[in-house]
Every structure is written in structure tokens, then in C-alpha cells.
Amino acid sequence: MAEGRTQGRAVRRYLEAMEAHRPKRGRKRTAESIKRRLAAIEADLPSADPLRRLQLVQERMDLRGELDASEQKVDLSELEGDFVRDARPYGERKGISYAAWRELGVPAAVLKKAGIGRGNSR
Questions:
Q1: What distance in Å separates the CA atoms of residue 93 and residue 112, rounded to the nearest whole number?
Q2: What is the pLDDT at residue 28?
Q3: In this structure, is the dihedral angle defined by the CA atoms of residues 117, 22, 7 and 92, taken in order, positive or negative?
Q4: How many Å apart are CA 115 and CA 91, to the nearest integer?
Q5: What's the confidence (pLDDT) of residue 4?
Q6: For the chain, what is the radius of gyration of the CA atoms?
Q7: How far is CA 9 from CA 47, 70, 87, in A?
Q8: Any idea of the CA torsion for 112, 114, 118, 120, to the nearest 10 degrees?
Q9: pLDDT interval class at 106 (50, 70, 90)
Q10: Residue 71 belongs to what H/E stretch?
Q11: Which one of 24, 38, 44, 91 has the minimum C-beta count within 10 Å?
Q12: 22 pLDDT higher than 80
């Protein structure tokens, strides 16, 4: 039972990290463009009406979070190693198909390292 929890934890940590650092659609914002927008918000806040101020404060919070997240570099290699070790037995026990892993965005090369192939479908 402990082995199953360990495998589940490794799979969950990898999938969460992968999802959290998946590239976003659309034009990429740079740290400089975020900082420029933050400066513009600070300039607009004093003269904004209450509803606009509320929106600006939320945008400022969102941008600061985005800036912080962009400065954090994530090394998926350790998480990937744990995933590769545990994904196959976890997937077999839970009946997870190759297609399900791929739909979540797990790269085919990672699945191959884990010993999960197209033939592992339900």
C-alpha cells in the first residue's frame, strides 16, 4: 500500500509541475513588459474611480504573481526521474492508457523511458 502511495505521489508531483510550467498560448510577456505595465498601473491608481482602482489592484496582483513565477526556474529532471520509475506500475494498477498520459501532455519520450508504449492502451 505504501508503494502505491509513493507511486501516486511521484506521478502527481510530475503532472502538477508540468502543468504549472506549460507554455501559455498567445504572445509571451517579458519581464520588462510586465514591469512597464506595473509602472503604468501605479501611475493610474491615484486618479482611478473605485471600480477601476479595484480592477487595477487585481491586475497588479496578477502581474506580480506572473513576474515571480517567471523568475523561478523549475528543474523537472528529478520529478521526471521519479515519474519514469513509478508511472508504469501506477498506470497498470489504475488502468491508465498511453493515450490518457499523452492527452495530459506527458511527452512521448518520457513515456518511452517509463516503459509505457502505445500498446499499453485499454
A1: 18
A2: 76
A3: negative
A4: 11
A5: 82
A6: 21
A7: 49, 25, 10
A8: 160
A9: very high
A10: helix 50-71
A11: 24
A12: no
